[in-house]
Specification:
The chain is an alpha/beta fold and 324 residues long. The protein has eleven helices and 15 strands. The structure holds threonylcarbamoyladenylate (TXA) and magnesium ion.
Length: 324
Amino acid sequence: MSTIGTDIAKAGEYLRQGEVVAIPTETVYGLAANALNPAAVANIFEAKNRPTFDPLILHVPSLAAASDYVTEISETAKLLADAFWPGPLTLLLPKKTLIPDLVTAGLPTVAVRVPAHPLTLALLNALDFPLAAPSANPFGYISPTTPQHVAAQLGSRVPYILDGGPCQIGIESTIISLEGNRPTVLRLGGLSVEAIEAVIGPVVSTLHSSSNPLAPGMLNSHYAPGKPLYLIDEPGIQGVLPEPDVAYLLFARRKGQAAAPNRFFLSESGDFKEAAQRLFGTLRQLDAGPWREIRAELLPERDLGRAINDRLRRAAHRENEPQP
Ligand code: TXA
Ligand code: MG
């Protein structure tokens, strides 16, 4: 079983030996290994049961450190990094050859970000290599936002979990590609498209590439709980009395909406940030609860609502299964 603690030196020891360590970030917990050591990186794929065509994110302590691993940082990339690093933004940049192909699944670009968590930044600063880290969950399952989430699924696979408390953002980073004419959002995440556009102007979104192995984070079925999750339309929620063996996951409490043991709100007050923070933990709670299925409503399509909806849609995806 894994040890949970705050010992950066111990985490560093494991990592230097080529082992995996779970690390806190502001988005979700990551399963980290020495990105420059292919054998260490292979341990990540094995622990997660992740297909090797799905590339990993490189975590570095600063923009300056990033330049050691990429051949070029464009003006647009610099603008974004200056505005949002450390933070929930991942940039695709042309990789140097010292980054193993296993990290990038053979792609010429590497995904890079500077995570905004003091423990992990201290760890990165203490190491002389960057950390490759996907989310610390079995492939396809709900991402972890506490050390306990990591231990529950990967406890037998990870010797050490660095405890940074619950994640402040709660959903993964926004991934943006700077190849081509226009910056392109490949994954909606903890940094809103509106915030990005305020810095660099209009961006394109390519989010429905379900079967596109170049962007596997966009796989249709992802972030999925074990029991069926169905999306419901807003109008049905207030009028119909919920079935007791179904859990209802709603965004905000509507005026006069009665409390019920099977009715859950991501944010009583309708705050996007709080909803994002609570999303994965609540999904886990409902997955473990006594309900036969989960019915979730979508949020307004703006700000972090878009990224949350993206997660809910992928969690709900059940091909060839009847919808209620
Ligand atoms: O917030 C986050 O991004 C978290 C924390 C731990 O940093 N990490 C995370 O990693 O969500 P992961 O592996 O679950 O998702 C990374 C996504 C993958 O879906 C992968 O397809 C995409 O990034 N990706 C990585 N490198 C890429 C590349 N060169 N081109 C296109 N997509 C890439
Ligand atoms: Mg993931």
